[in-house]
Each structure stands twice: as C-alpha cells, then as structure tokens.
C-alpha cells in the first residue's frame, strides 16, 4: 500500500471520527434535554395555602402536568426519538429528528404559557429549546453521520487474517472487528462456535 493511500485512509477515518463525535454530542444533548424537560414538567409549579373555617390550613400544589398536560408526553416523545436514533440509520434519524424538534417546540410552548408559575416552567422551556435544537441539528446533519456498521467496515480494511487463538479473537472483537469478517480464518470462526 502506498504512502498516499495510507494518508487518504487516515484522513477518511479522521473525518468519520469527527462526524461520529458530532453525532454523539447531538444525541447526548437531546437525551439530556428531554430528561430535564420531563423532570421539570413533573415538578410542582405552583402551590396555594388555604385556611378553612376551623382554622385548618391546607396547601394545594399543582404540578406541571396539571397545568400543561401535554408537556411531559412531548418531552418523553422527544427523548424516545433520540434513544431510537441510537439503533437506526441516517434516513430514520432525519425523520426522528423532525419528531424530536416538534416535541421540543410543543414542550417549550407549555413552559412559555406558564412562565409566571415559578422557575420550573423556565427550566422546562430552556431544556425544550435545546431538545428542539438538537432535533433540528439531527435533521440537518444526520446525512453525513456514519452508521454503526462503519466501525466494522473501517476495521476490516486490512487484509491480514486474525490469529486462530481465542485471545486474539476477543482482542479483535474489542477493537471493533466484525466476527464474521473474511479476515478471521474459518478454523477460528469454527472455534468460536464451539
């Protein structure tokens, strides 16, 4: 293999690694934002204290789910969309990005309608905007993100066969090589089945 070919492959692997890192950051931001929005939606937003005729005081609290019933389901739908993106290809990620962005906007609207209810609607609204942004970023950028299978394709570029002992097989799996690769010898594959 020539030096230019090696440099090209290294540059390609570097670009794939950068896109994979971007994918990880966006997916993590979406999941965390959805979790924070769901937490904020489930907290008590307002409380009122009433004194009855007998002098007994009672405090009544209203959670975000009481004031904006759609906030929690929308936040959970956005989080579920991001979790589903971990197991899907780029086309499905784009669709799920739209779902997450719309869920984030609906959750942000719920927070915006109740900003006077305290700090939790503010927190939910901010988290929901991050959720919507992550969904929009996914929709815009998912076409360039590598699929999970790229890890195995990149690892099987070499033409050397993996040794037949079990330790080498485990090391190959740990480094991301596909166990069904033609680079693993037939006798090593047979040992792995037994």
Q: How would you describe the overall organization of this protein?
A:
By secondary structure, the chain is mainly α. The protein has eight helices and two strands. Strands 1-2 form a two-stranded antiparallel sheet. Helix 3 (71-85) packs antiparallel against helix 4 (90-113), helix 3 (71-85) runs parallel beside helix 5 (119-141) and helix 4 (90-113) packs antiparallel against helix 5. The two termini are 36 Å apart.
What's the order of the H and E elements? HEEHHHHHHH
**Alpha-carbon distance between the termini?**
36 Å
Helical percent range? 55-70%
Number of domains: 2
Q: Could you tell me the strand content as a percent range?
A: 5-15%
Radius of gyration: 25 Å
Class per helix and strand makeup: mainly alpha
Uncertain regions: pLDDT < 50 for 5+ in a row?
A: 154-159
Task: Please give the number of β-strands.
Answer: 2
Major sheet, described briefly? Answer: 2 strands, antiparallel
Shape verdict: elongated
């Amino acid at each position: 293999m020539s030096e230019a070919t090696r440099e090209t492959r290294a540059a390609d692997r570097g670009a794939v690694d950068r896109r994979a890192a971007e994918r990880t950051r966006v997916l993590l931001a979406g999941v965390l934002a959805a979790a924070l929005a769901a937490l904020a939606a489930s907290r008590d937003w307002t409380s009122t204290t009433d004194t009855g005729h007998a002098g007994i005081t009672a405090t009544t609290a209203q959670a975000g789910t009481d004031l904006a019933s759609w906030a929690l389901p929308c936040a959970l739908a956005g989080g579920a969309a991001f979790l589903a993106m971990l197991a899907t290809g780029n086309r499905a990620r784009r669709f799920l990005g739209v779902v997450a962005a719309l869920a984030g906007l609906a959750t942000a609207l719920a927070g915006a309608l109740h900003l006077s209810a305290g700090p939790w609607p503010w927190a939910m609204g901010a988290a929901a905007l991050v959720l919507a942004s992550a969904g929009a970023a996914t929709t815009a950028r998912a076409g360039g993100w590598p699929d999970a299978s790229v890890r195995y394709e990149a690892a099987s570029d070499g033409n050397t066969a993996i040794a037949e002992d079990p330790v080498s097989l485990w090391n190959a799996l740990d480094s991301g090589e596909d166990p069904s690769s033609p680079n693993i010898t037939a006798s090593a594959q047979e040992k792995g089945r037994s």
